[in-house]
Design brief:
The complex is a heterodimer of chains A (360) and B (130).
Chain A lengths: L7 H6 L3 E5 L2 E6 L3 H10 L2 E4 L4 E6 L3 H8 L13 E7 L5 E8 L5 E5 L4 H12 L5 E4 L3 E7 L3 H8 L2 H9 L5 E4 L2 E4 L8 E7 L3 H10 L3 E2 L2 H10 L34 H6 L5 E7 L10 E4 L2 E12 L4 E8 L6 E5 L2 E9 L3 E2 L2 E2 L2 E2 L4
Parallel strand pairs in A: 3-13
Antiparallel strand pairs in A: 1-2, 3-9, 4-7, 4-8, 5-6, 6-7, 9-12, 10-11, 11-12, 14-17, 14-19, 15-16, 15-18, 16-17, 18-19, 19-22, 20-21
Helix pairs in contact in A: 2-8, 5-6
Chain B lengths: L8 E2 L4 E6 L2 E6 L1 H7 L2 E5 L6 E2 L4 E7 L3 E5 L4 E6 L2 H4 L3 H4 L8 E5 L11 H12 L1
Antiparallel strand pairs in B: 1-2, 2-3, 3-9, 4-6, 5-8, 6-7, 8-9
The chains are: A alpha+beta (360), B alpha+beta (130).
Chain lengths: 360, 130
């Protein structure tokens, strides 16, 4: 018996298949993972992601603390409530977790992964000892992600005037508080949408209103194929403490110049490194994690995440490799299968967007 | 609740087998398709392939995982379900009908009787769930 979100009974009553996910009993799908995937790409879906960990940073030194804690530069964030995606590194540059910080002032709001919760909190508190900054977990919140081309419109139609007005004023990747809810235009699908942090005792009635408005419930299975199509990393699959963000297609979130964050020195010394690239297979079959990847017949690395892409109707993958070429193959059950090497993302706003690459 | 047709025989690895004259039709059970989730690819054997009982002869890939399919009996593959190439979802929609995988000309068709009965197989699935 795992931990349960405030919406567990809703999932059960909808006939969800429940699986263990980092110690939580979570819905993997409600019937068909592929139909749920399409619902998000074409219309609107809601994910219960209340298993994720919400943390507040209180105190006068929260800003310099974040400057030390994170590879991305919080100093570059100018708009109130703007979201910043970053890796949190150890001293050797290994990725402890990836997270989102919302620049909400005092307190700052941070959302970290559930599987890494204890490790993250211990690390964040240890680093905070040198700063006037307190790390406070807020487990009493539910988190819902509503994603898809019709998601924002459907959410606005069921909220009160003030919350709807807040949404109206938000730019992409920005959030704000209203009536005890934190509403942000962020997500993990490559579609337009919202992530809403709300008091857990209001989660059930909001969930019911969303379903009545025609928003489909989406399980964690489709969440994984949506994020993979969107070229977004999954912690524990595509990166962990053994690799740096430079090896994880996260260069654009690392700001080294004039910075002294934990792990920065290790990244400065890392001149030659592997790259996380995208793979697309035109032939039949499914690319899966840990399958070996070859360039010109030579082993160059392995797949970190692979799946059937319901949008592209073929298999796609992320792979960490030391070289690429126009002659890439993946070994599937002893047979070599041709793949194209591409730059993620694969899909954005319902459309194919990847480009081929031949040489790193 | 999964369906366990009594006229079929089963393997503990979740294949079903049906005797049709001297041919054995093979697919995967309703319980198996439900556990796998949406099927997205089936790698079928070659027509003419020889197999022994227990050989890994096909692969079913779902959104969740790749799973081996074992030959229930020894013999020769005489036909495969070509519809699965473009419509692997038939395995989810009709696991005991349009979602069949392949047919074997069994060297000993009577051996199908030694496979699990629906009752035995259902008991095994229920034990797995608890």
């Amino acid at each position: 018996m795992g931990k349960k979100t405030p919406l567990f009974e809703k999932h059960e009553s909808l006939g969800a298949k429940i699986v263990d996910f980092g110690g939580w009993d979570m819905p993997i799908h409600y019937g068909s993972q592929i139909e749920e995937h399409h619902a998000v790409r074409r219309d609107a879906g809601v994910f219960d992601v209340s298993h994720m960990t919400v943390v507040e940073l209180h105190g006068a030194d929260a800003l310099p603390y974040l400057g030390r804690l994170l590879a991305n530069d919080i100093g570059r964030v100018k708009n109130p409530g703007q979201a910043m995606y970053s890796a949190m590194l150890n001293e050797t540059g290994g990725v402890l977790d990836d997270l989102i910080v919302y620049a909400t002032g005092d307190p700052y709001l941070v959302v970290v992964n559930c599987a890494t919760r204890e490790k993250d909190l211990a690390w964040m508190r240890r680093v905070a000892e040198a700063y006037r900054c307190e790390v406070v977990e807020r487990p009493e919140f539910a988190i819902l992600a509503i994603q898809g081309p019709e998601a924002i419109g459907k959410v606005k139609s069921i909220l009160g005037t003030e919350q709807a007005a807040l949404i109206e004023g938000l730019k992409a990747f920005q959030g704000g508080w209203c009536d005890g809810w934190f509403i942000a235009r962020t997500g993990y699908t490559g579609e337009k949408g919202l992530e809403i942090i709300l008091p857990e005792d209001q989660a059930e009635s909001f969930w019911d209103s969303l379903l009545e408005a025609g928003v489909r419930p989406i399980g964690l299975g489709a969440r994984d194929t949506l994020r993979l199509e969107a070229g977004m990393n999954l912690y524990g699959n595509d990166m962990d403490e053994s690799v740096t963000p430079l090896e994880s297609n996260m260069e654009s979130t690392v700001f080294l110049e004039g910075r002294d964050f934990i792990g920065a020195d290790a990244l400065r010394k890392q001149t030659n490194h592997d790259e996380l690239v995208g793979l697309v297979m035109a032939g039949k079959g499914i690319l899966r994690a840990h399958y070996p990847v070859f360039s010109e017949g030579t082993p160059v690395g392995e797949i970190t995440s692979g799946a059937f892409s319901p949008t592209l109707e073929k298999s796609i993958a992320l792979a960490r490799v030391s070289a690429t070429s126009s002659n890439m193959t993946v070994e599937i059950r002893g047979k070599m299968q041709a793949v194209e090497c591409v730059t993620p993302p694969f899909v954005r706003n319902g459309k194919q967007v990847y480009k081929q690459v031949y040489n790193l | 609740m999964a369906d366990f047709p009594t006229e079929l025989r089963y393997l503990k690895s979740h294949e079903w087998a049906k005797q049709d004259g001297d041919l054995i039709v093979v697919g995967i059970s309703d319980h198996a398709q439900d556990a796998l989730g949406d099927v997205v690819y089936v790698e079928l054997p070659e027509v003419g392939a020889e197999c022994q009982a227990g050989d890994e002869i096909a692969v079913v890939e779902s959104v969740k995982a790749a799973s081996d399919i074992y030959a229930p009996l020894g013999g020769t593959v005489v036909e495969v379900n070509a519809k699965l190439e473009d419509s692997p979802e038939l395995v989810n929609e009709a696991p005991y009908a349009d979602g069949w995988f392949f047919k074997i000309k069994a060297s000993d068709p009577a051996a199908v009787e030694s496979l699990l009965s629906a009752e035995q197989y259902q008991a095994l699935c229920e034990a797995e769930e608890h």
